[in-house]
Design goal:
single chain; globular; three-stranded antiparallel beta sheet; 203 residues; Phosphatidylethanolamine-binding Protein; mainly beta
Length: 203
Amino acid sequence: MRLTSTSFHNGQPMPAEFAAGDTAGFAPNRNPQLAWSEAPAGTRSFALLCIDPDVPTVAATVGRSDCTVPRDQPRGDFTHWAMADIPADVQAIAAGSCSDGFSVKGKTAPAGPAGARQGLNDFTGWFAGNPDMAGQYLGYDGPYPPFNDERVHRYFFRVFALDVAQLDLPTPFTAADVLRAMHGHVLAEAALHGTYTLNPALA
């Protein structure tokens, strides 16, 4: 199984068009184009995740002009996209077809392939304590790493071919729910990643 994108090259920087934030604030936040092929026989649906494994774990260091987030600070995962029940006959997602702009308080009904379900991304938790931003952030919301981070962030897009048409998921669901529900149902997986930074010293 193969996963490709015309929006960025594997392992290379993602254009700001596909990010939630840039140096001026919110960015266009369009989802990148993705296409997958060579799914195995018996595939009944696909699941899609986008996760950044380079997120700082010490919140007090984030977004400060008087210090940087050290490169060697322990890092955690941040989900930018979780989608399940993508029909087996869908093998591509066009750029901007699932997200085109940043919605304060989150998208209430993000677009996507017919029949697919969009889960929560981790901006839900990130903005939970901010009354101006808090909400359920469903679907794709792209990169917005701290401008003072010494590490370039990586964004891993993973597509899973599954032997079931629908996953047993709560409403709303998270990437962790998808990973649990598809255990034992994965026929194949394909992945690629892009990078993104707002640190001018690393750009």
